[in-house]
Amino acid sequence: MVPRVIFGRGSFNQLSELLAPNRLSNNAPFIFLVDDVFRTNVNITSRIPIAYQDKIILVSTAEEPKTSQVDELVEDIILTSKERPSGIIGIGGGSILDLAKAVAIMLTNEGNAEDYQGWDLVKNKALYHVGIPTISGTGAEVSRTTVLTGPQRKLGINSDFTPFDQVVLDPELTNGAPKDQWFYTGMDCFIHCVESLHGTYLNAFSKTYGDTAYGLCKEIYLDGNLTKKETQDKLMMASWHGGMSIAYSQVGVAHAMSYGLSYLLGTKHGIGNCIVFNHLEEFYPNDVKLFKEMLEKHNINMPVGICKDLSEKDFDTMIDVALGLEPLWENAIGKNWKKTITRKKLKELYSKM
Ligand code: NAD
Ligand code: ZN
Questions:
Q1: Domain named Fe-containing alcohol dehydrogenase-like C-terminal: which ranges (predicted)?
Q2: Distance in Å, CA 209 to ligand 2 centroid
Q3: Where are the alpha helices (DSSP H) in 120-227?
Q4: What separation in Å is there between the alpha carbon of 306 and the centre of ligand 1?
Q5: Element (H, E) at 155
Q6: 105 and 190 co-located in one domain
Q7: Residues with CB under 6 A from ligand 1
Q8: Residue 114 belongs to what domain range?
């Protein structure tokens, strides 16, 4: 679990006092990994409390985080810091939050990021790390994983050392998020809840968190009587609770198949989940219906036909990635999932997308 979290509009202003007690020395900088979409956004960049040798590194999120990108950032930080940094602070969406977690881990663990993709492979406690989301939905601010694309696979570094030491939830920071992205990233949260609540791993914790976040998503995306501020506040809470729900259980069919799209085509997580979920009536009938209503209500035109020109080899690659995520299928379908989730079945589903 994340041991420390603050929530509230304007809470970003408390960052300086939160960091101060964690500074190891004047030569041990805080490194701020910031989405480069904020390059010209003085409302965020000018409020980052820089002191001593602290450094802001602007990172592009045009592509989702890669293991090689983590290794390069770690090398750059080691080469340009006088001493091991005091901490890593990620400011951005799920991509930046995941990078911050992975960099913090790799600054205290030997080897390359790809060596740690999997479950509980991290040996040493990560460097102090802080997460500050600027768009809501992924739950990356609360989860015990950091999802990375490596040379072999797209898989998280799942470990007890992955979660942030401190999270700052300031809904005001989500002000500039583009509408489509707001929808897709928010739907990641909705889909987390659906997959957790309909999974075989469900338990009292995942259900309680999942029910809460699911209710908030319906209020935000369907009921439509909320102000912009209420929407931002509630979506930030939904993201957290949706993340907690899967922390206690697992995601399901949409995520497994969306990882395949992402690995082959580079489709980003939020939109990829939506593209897949739109075709999962047979697994989650009521929620796919609700999802279609949400699409219509918010005038979202999703891409179609993204798999139409793919070769047999391409389909095989996506199917291999999807089938490799065994815990997701076991959660979604049950222990005997291999009886129904065949290569043929997945090819049929991918072909519709
Ligand atoms: P993202 O971080 O890629 O950001 C999406 C887009 O929104 C980017 O173009 C970014 O620049 C922009 N953006 C973000 N905040 C903004 C703001 N306030 N104003 C203007 N633009 C803003 O997208 P995401 O959906 O938040 O995260 C997706 C990533 O999260 C994927 O890499 C996925 O694998 C990962 N993820 C991780 C977990 C986890 O538990 N660790 C869970 C789900 C997803
Ligand atoms: Zn997700």
A1: 184-286
A2: 15
A3: 179-197, 204-218
A4: 21
A5: strand 154-158
A6: no
A7: 35, 37, 61, 64-65, 92-96, 98, 134-135, 138-140, 143, 145-147, 173-174, 176-177, 181, 185, 188, 268-270
A8: 5-174
Neighbours of ion ligand 2 (CB under 5 A): 188
Q: What is the pLDDT along the chain (353 residues), one digit of tens a residue?
A: 899 999 999 999 999 999 999 999 999 999 999 999 999 888 899 999 999 999 999 999 999 999 999 999 999 999 999 999 999 999 999 999 999 999 999 999 999 999 999 999 999 999 999 999 999 999 999 999 999 999 888 889 999 999 999 999 999 999 999 999 999 999 999 999 999 999 999 999 999 999 999 999 999 999 878 999 999 999 999 999 999 999 999 999 999 999 999 999 999 999 999 999 999 999 999 999 999 999 999 999 999 999 999 999 999 999 999 999 999 999 999 999 999 999 999 999 999 99
294 Cα to the center of ligand 1, angstroms? 20
Domain boundary among 174, 193, 211: 174
Structure tokens at 68: 């090689």
Residue whose Cα lies nearest atom 4 of ligand 1: it is: 93
Ligand 1, atom nearest to 138 Cα: 43
| Closest approach atom of ligand 1 to CA 184 | 25
**Within 13 Å, how many C-alpha atoms sit on residue 81's CB side?**
26
Residue by residue, DSSP assigns 212-257 as: HHHHHHHIIIII----HHHHHHHHHHHHHHHHHHHHSS---HHHHH
Q: Give SS3 for 110.
A: coil
**Shared domain check, 40 and 71:** yes
Distance 166 CA to ligand 1 centre (A): 19
Task: Indicate the length of the chain as a whole number.
Answer: 353
Q: Residue 252 maps to which CATH number?
A: 1.20.1090.10
| Domain stops at, among 129, 151, 174 | 174
Total domain count for the chain?
2
Domain shared by 208 and 300, yes or no: yes
**Same domain, residue pair 192 and 279:** yes
For residue 174, the ligand 1 atom closest to its alpha carbon is 18
**Pair 199, 317 in one domain:** yes
Q: For residues 81 and 211, state if they share a domain.
A: no
CA-atom Rg of the chain in angstroms: 20
**Distance, CA 27 to ligand 1 centroid (Å)?**
31
CA-CA-CA-CA torsion sign (50, 51, 57, 61): negative
Cα(203) to ligand 2 centroid in Å equals 19
Q: State the pLDDT at residue 190.
A: 98
Proximal ligand: closest to the CA of 93: 1
